[in-house]
Design goal:
This protein is of the alpha/beta class. Helix content is 54%, strand content 10%.
Length: 408
């Protein structure tokens, strides 16, 4: 049996808690105040990048110059509409050109593959049109049958990264699909490597302390907020700001259960699969998951940490709302609650972050599923927020020729 009930603490923060935090990040990220300093910091960085011209029009055409920021807007819209486009942000490479041609073909436009201001306007118009329509593809359901002719069907299950007993009790339909599957695929399955990556990623190893880089007033505020959760100031001095941010946004009950070694839903599924002798596969490495936060500039990490102090006391309320929506199988409701702050004009940065946290990972995980789905009879479990909408995994699989049917 692959058990994690006796994990040793690291700097006073158990690895179990950190892993829960990273996996659950998508459900807490967008509840910052609208005056969050992150918005200003990243907006300034985007303005700095706007001077880099990267796209050219077709031969002989006179098109307005398109800079890196504009190409980034196009890439963001393409992914939000489910067309992909995974080049380096701001660079219109081959993947972006393929995505542009697909969009142009669907909308009866000349298939140039080029990013220009007219294309960006069309992309953003389509995004607004779909938003105003109020419909979310695959917006209701947690278990989906994924089928193609000549292959045994597989099942895709949307999880919520909590350890609450209500979500650990699987509905009969989900339990049956899980029991019958030949292989179980999760976002991450290599928990040994996952522990090592998490331990290294969360700790500053350059001799500096959190107190030094954050400044005394912010450090004191962070220490006071974490003291309510049982952490001492000495325990957090070597921890990176992004990890502190995540700890501050986790519900208290989740912290307590993780510290006792109680797995969240995805971990529990992995344990059950191994106990039953099933093969287990991972769609991502922990390094890929951690990179979402760990590779952000330090100034942005500090801004996130500062914003988290102000709303750390709201996490329990947020958890209850999300669990209620989850148990109702209301993926559209979860997406709506998550996206509402991002629809404000001054929340463009948060939309960009959602693209990085959800949309890009959807593309990566959908690719990783290809061989599993081709073999058939797989049970695939990913966070529920990765399933619905045009950029969701279900729509991506539909575009690849799979028939998608709600089971539960």
């Amino acid at each position: 049996m692959h058990s994690r009930t006796s994990r040793e603490p690291n700097h006073g923060l158990t690895i179990a808690v950190l892993l829960l935090a990273v996996a659950g990040l998508a459900f807490t990220l967008f509840y910052d105040d609208r005056d969050d300093p992150l918005l200003t910091l990243v907006a300034e960085r985007a303005a700095d990048a706007a001077s880099v011209a990267v796209a050219a029009g077709p031969a002989g055409a006179e098109l307005p110059p398109v800079d890196a920021a504009a190409v980034g807007r196009a890439q963001l819209a393409l992914r939000a509409l489910g067309y992909g486009g995974e080049d380096v942000e701001g660079i219109a490479g081959a993947a972006t050109q393929i995505a542009v041609r697909a969009f142009q073909a669907d909308h009866r436009l000349a298939e140039t593959g080029h990013v220009d201001l007219t294309l960006i306007q069309r992309l953003e118009h389509e995004l607004n049109r779909r938003r105003e329509a109020g419909t979310v593809p695959y917006g209701r359901g947690l278990l989906w049958r994924v089928a193609r002719d000549g292959v045994r069907p597989s099942y895709l299950f949307g999880t919520i990264h909590y350890s609450d007993p209500r979500v650990l009790s699987l509905p009969q339909e989900v339990a049956q699909a899980f029991a019958n599957a030949d292989i179980v695929a999760l976002e991450v399955a290599d928990f040994q490597g996952l522990e090592a990556n998490a331990a290294r990623a969360m700790v500053m190893n350059d001799g500096r302390s959190l107190e030094e880089i954050a400044g005394q007033p912010l450090f004191d505020a962070v220490a006071a907020a974490l003291a309510k959760r049982g952490f001492g100031a000495q325990q957090i001095r070597a921890v990176k700001p992004w990890a502190i941010y995540i700890f501050l946004t986790l519900p208290n009950a989740e912290l307590q259960r993780a510290a006792r070694g109680i797995p969240y839903l995805d971990q529990w599924l992995e344990e059950q699969a191994r106990t039953r002798g099933k093969r287990v596969a991972g769609l991502e490495t922990m390094a890929e998951q951690l990179s979402v936060m760990n590779e952000m500039p330090e100034a942005i990490q500090l801004a996130l940490m500062q914003s988290a102090v102000a709303y750390a006391d709201r996490t329990d309320e947020l958890q209850e709302m999300l669990i209620d929506l989850y148990l109702k199988r209301d993926l559209a409701g979860i997406q709506r609650e998550m996206s509402a702050p991002a629809q404000a004009a001054d929340a463009e940065v948060m939309r960009v972050f959602l693209d990085r946290l959800i949309n890009r990972r959807n593309l990566r995980m959908a690719r990783a599923m290809a061989d599993l789905l081709a073999a058939g009879n797989a049970f695939v479990a990913v966070g529920a927020l990765h399933l619905p909408g045009d950029p969701g995994i279900l729509r991506l699989l539909e575009r690849r020729g799979y028939k998608i049917e709600a089971v539960y």
